[in-house]
Amino acid sequence: MPPLVRVKHLEKIYDVSGVKTPALRGVDLEVLPGEFTALAGPSGSGKSTLLHLIGGLDHPTSGEVWLSGKRVDQLARTELADLRLRHLGFIFQAYNLIPVLTALENAAFVLELRGVPRREREQRALLALETLGMAEFAARRPNQLSGGQQQRVAVARALAAEPAVILADEPTANLDRKTGEALIEYMKMLNQMQGITFVFSTHDPRLLAHVTRTVELEDGQVKSDSAQAQAQRRDGSSVTSVTF
């Protein structure tokens, strides 16, 4: 089975006032369709940077980024926008809600861009809002919601679209225990029943307990990968840390 996501020799160096800071140092990673994968590691390890590069929100200093058979880092702007619309869902800590739209309209926005009929997109958006405990706030605009509530609307927008892969940066970080657990169960359901691939950046032990693969980053490199460790066990070989 070909990988849905593949990064090869990926490097990202930020230049701030002439000071070069490496965020990723030669990362190699493949994610197969249907995986439920977490990127773990301390703050500054490169987790969010890697998600941004996979999603085409930033450009690598060197290396390759592939998604659904297309090389993301070489796509024209219009091609990249279409790839995101059709294949990607984003759950990032910056909510990026549209101020003039209600919570329901924000949750249905990607579906509207895809041309999904109004009744269907509203039903799907409302189901996602209900799952996250936000149905009663469906008619409110972002400035009428708390930060945690806005995050739930942003999560609902990504989940309602049911893309091939969802990139989620600390999706449970600002949620209470009950809502966070409901979100994890909903994402698991979409993964198992509809085959949606998830790649998370997270510190949350609740989420880490449910993923099927954990890739640990440290100082911009892959320190360990549970999928490779499992493969080594199946082969009967010893398990060692993997650094690229």
Automatic annotation (TrEMBL):
Any Pfam family: ABC_tran
SUPFAM superfamilies hit by this protein: P-loop containing nucleoside triphosphate hydrolases
Compositional bias segments (type: Polar residues): 223-244
Region Disordered, annotated ranges: 221-244
GO MF term (any one): ATP binding
PROSITE patterns for the chain: ABC_TRANSPORTER_1, ABC_TRANSPORTER_2
InterPro entries: AAA+_ATPase, ABC_transporter-like_ATP-bd, ABC_transporter-like_CS, ABC_transpr_LolD-like, MacB-like_ATP-bd, P-loop_NTPase
Organism: Deinococcus antarcticus
This protein's name: ABC transporter ATP-binding protein
Xref: Gene3D superfamilies: P-loop containing nucleotide triphosphate hydrolases
Domain ABC transporter intervals: 5-244
Record key words, sorted: ATP-binding, Nucleotide-binding, Transport
